[in-house]
Amino acid sequence: MSLKDTSKFLSLILRHKPQAVGLELDEHGWADVDELIRRVSRKRPLDRATLEQIVATDEKQRYSFSADGQLIRANQGHSIPVDVELAELEPPKILYHGTGERFAASIRAQGLIRKSRLYVHLSSDVETAINVGRRHGKPKIFIVESGRMFADGCKFFRSVNGVWLTEHVPAQYLKESF
Ligand code: HQG
């Protein structure tokens, strides 16, 4: 079992389906580390050292330990309703959203919707957006006029791993050419 596979399983548990291992997250998305290890390791090998390695080396810094090291949570990406105490901030003037080309027509019509997640995910650089888009097939990049949205009263949040989040991007704030 590679670290990446274990990390993907942790994402499933900490963002979407803690019940898959009989775990409960608190209202802020935290799981007890010892309990997580105990429950996950019934399905695949996991010890504290491996978990610490995953948290430290994850290329998107997806997870955080609490200050005392007893709790762990995903930094963003949840579909279950938890409050991970996101920082509400003024966004850069422009953000990017990478998606699959096959979704473009629907996005032009409806704007960006959050689908199963709590927020629409936006990137501050094009390269990251392209990588996000590739997960869905041929990538397509939308430019989000986040400065204008913010001026119009829309709220923006930034997760501790640098992902920008907002509830909805109406089509009027989307552009397609650079
Ligand atoms: C699309 C990964 C049709 C949206 C990434 C996206 C990210 C629409 C898909 C994080 C639409 C949802 C999130 C509309 C939005 N019509 N399709 N109106 N509005 N969509 O996976 O943003 O590796 O839930 O464009 O790096 O792709 O998991 O969201 O293509 O940060 O840590 O609906 O997940 O991070 O797909 O990815 P997702 P996402 P991790």
General description of the model:
By secondary structure, this protein is α+β, with helices and mostly antiparallel strands. It has 2 domains: 3-74, RNA 2'-phosphotransferase, Tpt1/KptA family, N-terminal domain (Arc Repressor Mutant, subunit A, Orthogonal Bundle), CATH 1.10.10.970; 95-176, ADP-ribosylation fold (Alpha-Beta Barrel). The chain is built from 6 helices and 10 strands. It has helices spanning 3-16, 33-40, 48-57, 104-110, 126-134, 146-151; strands at residues 31-32, 63-65, 71-74, 87-88, 95-100, 120-122, 139-144, 157-158, 164-166, 174-175. Strands 4-8-9-6 form a 4-stranded antiparallel beta sheet, with no helix packed on it. Strands 1-3-2 form a 3-stranded antiparallel beta sheet. Strand 2 and strand 3 form a beta hairpin.
Question: How many distinct folded domains?
Answer: 2
Helix content: 25-40%
Shape: elongated
How much of the sequence lies in strands comes to 15-25%
Low-pLDDT segments, ≥5 res: none
Oligomerization state of this entry? single chain
Radius of gyration: 17 Å
Largest sheet: 4 strands, antiparallel
CATH topology of the largest domain: ADP-ribosylation fold
